[in-house]
Design brief:
Blueprint: H1 2-24, H2 29-35, E1 37-40, E2 48-50, E3 53-55, H3 57-68, E4 79-80, H4 83-92, E5 96-102, E6 111-127, E7 145-148, H5 152-159, E8 167-170, H6 173-182, E9 187-191, H7 192-201, E10 209-225, H8 230-243, H9 253-259
Parallel strand pairs: 1-4, 1-5, 7-8, 7-9
Antiparallel strand pairs: 2-3, 5-10, 6-9, 6-10
Helix pairs in contact: 3-8
């Protein structure tokens, strides 16, 4: 009887230790794919599609961070969506990751944050031949400004009282650049580095355009759904900080990844 009890106790302990061990293991591939939804937008050189896959230095850094923490997200599983849709999904779906996301006061409590990756400067761009001069936001009243809905420039302009009639908010940066080129909008509110990158891809001579006003500069982060576990966020941030330390070449892993896209 004692032996049977001992066997039962032994089995119970084995099951207990097995459950405890499994609870401490990192996500396996199937769990990782079920748990996480990674979404981004077309915002080169940070994130963009090339040959059917999502590229960009923010993408490469994110994949490295996740893999180092045993979260096996594949490049092919990343979904490229219009920014308004991606932003809404990341706020509402547990396990969602949105990038590259400017961390602002208005967004602070909406997500949990891993970063910073780099900084992004939002500007107003005009065609040179229009000879538009902007010295303050008060000068914007005669103009139609193309924005990406719910982007940092869009939120900044709305917060600072720019009338809705002056804002032409859409979901596609390429379409906005075409509208600026054709004169259907007067100004483009966008990341300056992304605007020049896209113009180069579109064979548009950037010498025909000027930055006429700087709106703001913000750090870019990976925005995780607010339900994400704090300990995981801490681990991911620690990994990123390690990747920013110089190696034997004198450059960090992050710098080496960014250099590939210069």
């Amino acid at each position: 009887m004692e032996m049977r009890g001992g066997r039962i106790m032994g089995r119970g302990l084995c099951i207990f230790f097995l459950v405890t061990l499994l609870a401490g293991l990192p996500f396996n591939s199937a769990q990782g794919q079920e748990k996480w939804t990674v979404v981004t937008e077309e915002l080169p050189p940070f994130n963009f599609v090339h040959d059917g896959e999502v590229r960009g230095f923010s993408t490469d850094i994110l994949l490295r961070i996740l893999h180092k923490n045993n979260i096996p997200i594949s490049r092919k599983s990343i979904r490229l969506l219009p920014w308004p849709r991606a932003y809404k999904l990341a706020r509402e779906r547990a396990g969602a990751i949105l990038y590259s996301t400017a961390r602002t006061k208005e967004r602070e409590e909406l997500f949990k944050w891993v970063g910073p990756i780099t900084d992004v400067t939002s500007v107003l761009i005009a065609r040179k031949d229009r000879k538009i001069n902007i010295h303050s936001l008060a000068d914007l009243s005669p103009y139609i400004i193309g924005t990406i809905r719910d982007s940092v420039p869009d939120q900044f302009l709305r917060k600072n009282g720019i009338a809705r009639k002056n804002l032409d908010g859409i979901a596609c940066a390429v379409s906005n650049i075409k509208k600026l080129q054709s004169g259907r909008i007067d100004l483009l509110a966008f990341s300056v580095s992304s605007a020049w990158f896209l113009m180069k891809q579109m064979n548009i001579d950037r010498n025909g355009y000027d930055v006429v006003f700087t709106l703001n500069s913000n750090p870019l982060y990976y925005a995780f759904n607010a339900q994400t576990d704090n300990s995981l966020i801490s681990a991911l941030n620690a990994t990123l900080q390690e990747m920013k330390k110089p190696d034997s070449t004198g450059k960090s892993i992050v710098e080496q990844i960014i250099d590939k896209y210069r």
